[in-house]
Amino acid sequence: MARVVVVGSINMDLVTLAPRFAAPGETLLGERFLTVHGGKGANQAVAAARLGADVALIGAVGDDAFGMQLHAGLAHEGISLDHVARIADCGSGTASITVAEGENHIIVVPAANARVTPAQIERAQATLAKADAILVQMEIPLEAVEATLRLGHRLGKPVILNPAPAQPLPIEWLKLARYLTPNQHELAILLSAGPAEDFLTLMQRSPAPVVLTRGAEGAWYRDGGEPVHQEGFQIDVVDSTGAGDTFNAALAVFLHEGLPIAVRKACAAAALSVSKLGAQGGMPRLDEFNTWLARQG
Fold first, then answer.
1. Using one digit for the tens of pLDDT, what is the confidence trace for 105-149?
2. What is the pLDDT of residues 39-83, one digit of tens each?
3. What's the whole-model pTM score?
4. Active site residue 245
5. Domains, the chain, ordered by start
6. Band of the pLDDT at 19, cuts 50, 70, 90?
7. Could you say which of 13, 54, 64, 245 is catalytic?
8. 3-state secondary structure string across the chain
C-alpha cells in the first residue's frame, strides 16, 4: 500500500443549475441546487484513498457547518486528518458555481484554505517523512506550497506539484519538484511562455520533469530523455469534472511502479472517473479500477 500525503485545499462546492446566466441585477429561477464536497486537495486525497493508498491530508477547514460536513466526508474515506486544522474565526472554503448553457461561472472564496501556513507544513514533518509520494497544488498560499516543496526535497521524497490554478513560479521552486503535472495552458503560464510555443518544446526546457495531461489524448511525460506519449482510454464521457485530480492521485499512488506504468494507470483512472457524475462521485475504487483496466488489454 502506497503512502501518499496531500497538501491542499478543501472546499464545499455550491452548484446551481440554471436555464441561462442571470443578467446584472436580474433575479432568475434556477433548476437545481447541490452542495458537493470539493477542493483540489480534498479531491486528490479521496481519489488516492479509493485507489488503495494510505492517505494523509494537510489543509484547513472553518469551524462551521461546512467544515463539519467536509471533515466527516474525508474521514469516511479513511483519510488521516491529523493535520487538517479547524480555524475558529473563519469559514470553510467555498466555490459558488453556476452551470448554464453548457458553460459555468465560478467564484472561489478560499477562506480557511488561505490559513494553511509553512509552520503547519513543518509540524507535519513526521507524516511527510513516511510518504512514498507528496502531492501539492496551488489553491493554498504560495508560501505553503514552497514549504512543501522544500521540506519534501529535504526529506528526499518525490513531490508532485500540480500547478493549478497556474501562475509563474520561481525556477528555484520548480527544481525542487520531482514532477510537474500541468496541462498545456498551465505549463505555458508556469514558464512565462507565449501561448504559441509548442508544448513539447516547453517540456524540454522545464527545470523539472513534466507529466503533461492532454485530456482524451492521454498524457506526455519526460524524465531526462525525449517526451513520450501515453495514449488515452476511450470511454463515454458523462462529467469530466475531477479528471485531473484523479490523474494526479493515481500518478502518486502508482509512482513506485515506475513512471511509464504510473502514467498509464493515471490516464486510465482519469478516463474511468469521467464515466460518472461529479468530481468525487466519479472517482473509482481499486477493485473497480483493476477490473476495468484488465479489460483494456
1. 888 899 999 999 999 999 999 999 999 999 999 999 999 999 999
2. 999 999 999 999 999 999 999 999 999 999 999 999 999 999 999
3. 0.93
4. yes
5. 3-18+30-295 (3.40.1190.20)
6. very high
7. 245
8. CCEEEEECCCEEEEEEECCCCCCCCCCCCCCEEEEEEECHHHHHHHHHHHCCCEEEEEEEEECCHHHHHHHHHHHHCCCEEEEEEEECCCCCEEEEEEEECCEEEEEEECHHHHHCCHHHHHHCHHHHHCCCEEEECCCCCHHHHHHHHHHHHHCCCCEEECCCCCCCCCHHHHCCCCEECCEHHHHHHHCCCCCCCCHHHHHHHCCCCEEEECHHHCEEEECCCCCEEECCCCCCCCCCCCHHHHHHHHHHHHHHHCHHHHHHHHHHHHHHHCCCCCCCCCCCCHHHHHHHHHHCC
Amino acid at the residue 276: K
Q: Can you read off the three cell numbers belonging to residue 92?
A: 470553510
